[in-house]
Design brief:
Blueprint (H helix, E strand, L loop, with lengths): L13 H8 L2 H8 L16 H9 L5 E2 H8 L3 H13 L3 E5 L7 E5 L2
Antiparallel strand pairs: 1-3, 2-3
């Protein structure tokens, strides 16, 4: 009885194959500086979270109803976003005057 071991080459990884198929000139062109004559990318619209943060940084702050109207989120989603801001390190405070709605603010540390 004899053991035979076939000497097969290692299977090629897809990433390795993709690198080999890409001409070196294209790789160099993609890493060069951007063309100044090319059209610029459109400006990304502000996210709802950044809109909410801007409202909370105002001197008078914002209420849940104001944040809901601005973001078009449900109240529980808006409160969850406030919790997310706290987890990101923002110092969110809230105050409630008698007979008024609770006002939330982001205070600078």
């Amino acid at each position: 009885m004899t053991d035979t071991i076939e000497n097969k080459p290692a299977p090629k990884l897809w990433r390795d194959m993709a690198r080999r198929l890409t001409p070196a000139a294209e790789v160099k062109a993609s890493t060069s500086a951007p063309d100044p004559n090319a059209e610029s990318k459109p400006v990304k619209p502000a996210s709802k979270a950044s809109l909410m943060l801007g409202m909370l940084q105002r001197a008078d702050g914002a209420t849940i109803s104001q944040l809901v109207a601005a973001t078009d989120w449900l109240p529980h989603t808006t409160r969850a976003a406030l919790t997310g801001l706290k987890k990101k390190g923002y110092h969110v405070t809230s105050m409630k005057a008698e007979g008024e709605e609770r006002v939330y603010r982001v205070v600078a540390d």
